[in-house]
Amino acid sequence: MDKERFPDNYAVKKQKADLSGADLSGADLSGADLRGANLTNADLSGANLSGANLSNASLTRADLSNVSLTRADLSGANLFRANLRRANLYYADLTEANLTEANLNNTDLTDADLTDADLTKANLTYAKGLDQH
C-alpha cells in the first residue's frame, strides 16, 4: 500500500486488516478501529492514533516514532521490537501488551496502564511517567 492518506475525521474501520509493511506515516488515524490488525513492519511515524483501538493488533517492528497514541487502546497488542521513540502514550491502555525489546526512548507514558505488560529488554531511557507505576 502506497502512502494512503485519510481525510480528517474519516471513520477508519480496518478490524483484522492486513496492513503489514504499509506506509501510513503522518496519517490522521485518530479514533480508528484497528482491532486485531496486522501492522507488522508498518511505518506509522508521525501519525495521529489518538483514541484509536489497536487492541490485539500486531505491531511487530512497526515504526511508531513521534506518534500520538493518547488514550489509545493497545491492550493485548504485540509491539515486539517496535520503535516508539518520542511517542505520546498519555492515558494509553497497554494492558497485557508485549513491549519486549521495544524502543521507548523519550516516550511519554504518563498515566498509561501498563498492567501485565511485558517490558523485557525494552529501552526506557528518558521515558516519562514510569514513576507512577
UniProtKB/TrEMBL annotation:
InterPro entries for the chain: 5peptide_repeat (IPR001646), Pentapeptide-BTB/POZ_domain (IPR051082)
SUPFAM superfamilies, sorted: Pentapeptide repeat-like
Name the record gives this protein: Pentapeptide repeat-containing protein
PANTHER family xref list: BTB_POZ DOMAIN-CONTAINING PROTEIN KCTD9
